[in-house]
Amino acid sequence: MFVDTTLRDAQQSLIATRMRTEDMEPVLDAFDELGFHAMEVWGGATYDSMVRFLDEDPWERLKTVRSKLKRTKIQMLLRGQNLVGYRIYADDVVELFIKKVADYGLDIVRIFDALNDVRNMSKPIEVSKRFGLHVQGAISYTVSPFHTIDYYIDYVEKLIDAGVDSICIKDMAGILTPKIAYELVKLIKKRFGVSVDIHSHCTSGLAPMVYLASLEAGADWFDTALSPFSDGTSQPPYETLHSAFIEYRRMEPMKTGTLRFLVDHFSRLREKYREYDVGRKYPDTMVFIHQIPGGMYSNLVRQMAEQGMMDKLEDVLKEVPRVRKDLGYPPLVTPISQIVGVQALLNVLHGRYRIVTNELKRYVKGLYGKPPVKLDPEFVDMILEGEKPVDVRPADLLSPELREAKRRGGMLVEREEDLLTFVILGKVGEPFLRRKYEKNLRIDFEYVDDMMKFTGDVPVYPI
Ligand code: CO
Q1: Using omega within 30 degrees of 0 as the cis cutoff, is the peptide bond preceding 400 cis?
Q2: Whose CB has fewer CB within 10 Å in the chain, the N or C terminal residue?
């Protein structure tokens, strides 16, 4: 009944996703003995960080993990039509990406959309079902005057109509409270009878209470991390929750020998990656106000520290909820969290909306999907300078992308996996592929330079 997140969300929330495959490989057999329902091992930040910082092929990691996990299901987190990237991709990219993960032996795909706009999830859901994956539809949980229990139940109904097999309540910022969790789980179980997974973060300190309340309401799966990578902005500790939950439900006893080995291993890793460690020593209750998820918070602090702007941090944290309100209360999750964070920073530095990012313009135009609450027409006018927003499924505005990318990528993208990295990560993917082929094939790169004119990682929309 537990889903382990150590290799995905936990290391993302605590050590900026720097864990290497070589850190994981020696302990995968041991993980497999613990009897988790699933292990989440892959997602957008994993993919990006491996390509950008670790110089590792994300697909190789998936292969390694699959070969070692014999009884545990493998799960990934997919950003709906944004896949593992930062923009909406055309349907042909979605098709190829999901076909590939299915080929690699993935079992469960957890799909969310940052705006809870089902139109951004319908294609990935349909394709995943077609390739035989278990599809878990995730609620991106947020709090606003608009996000009531009724809203979430409506949304779950839409997800189920779109074909999902189970539901995840994904509380990326750790702001879900026990009573709401209880009511939500209870209603979802009663109305739809599907399995429910609870995903929260310990940021505010509420997560273990939320998990217990959800257990009592009948939730099926609980996302936890091994203790050395738990707590802080990460998930609650598996060992702790197991000790509590075994009094409520029949489950396998804890394998203490195996656990001791794993805990030793991951304590050493926590030490090894100390320079990236932003773990807090006590709960951050400000999160109820700014709602910034762990991953976004650590990035924001890092960026501001690098630019010597830490004295402005409080102002930026206060500006984040104001920008969020202007944008119709979107949940703060990738890629929307970054758009809100950067705009809040610009507003503090230069005055409110004196400088507006292109991403914010695209958001207001409707190119990321439908904001949860209708935007104030005056605000829309100010940002779009008279242009009109669109009201269609964003991917419907895109023509197929793969053919053109293949032409531009030439010999770098002959493998489909590489083509996907090239399309999804653009400017970040290209140098990675060059390095990779330089090592393996010793290609003459002046020739390739000539062939490759592809530079944009966020191509301009054809409208
Ligand atoms: Co999370």
Answers
A1: no
A2: C
Ligand 1 centre from 339 Cα, in Å? 18
**Together in a domain, 40 and 81:** yes
Q: Which residues pair with 224 in a beta bridge?
A: 4
Pair 51, 168 in one domain: yes
| Residue 402, token pair as written in the block | 């793969």
Q: Can you give the pTM of this predicted structure?
A: 0.92
380 C-alpha to ligand 1 centroid (Å):
31
Give 168-208 pLDDT, tens digit per residue.
999 999 999 999 999 999 999 999 999 999 999 999 999 99
Number of domain units in the chain: 3
Single residue among 363, 396, 429 that ends a domain in this structure:
396
CA dist., res. 307 & res. 299, Å (int) = 12
CA 60 to centroid of ligand 1, rounded, Å: 23
Collect residues with CB below 5 Å from ion ligand 1. 9, 172
Q: How far is the CA of 176 from the centre of ligand 1 (A)?
A: 12
DSSP 390: P
Same domain, 252 and 320: no
> 108 and 185, same structural domain?
yes
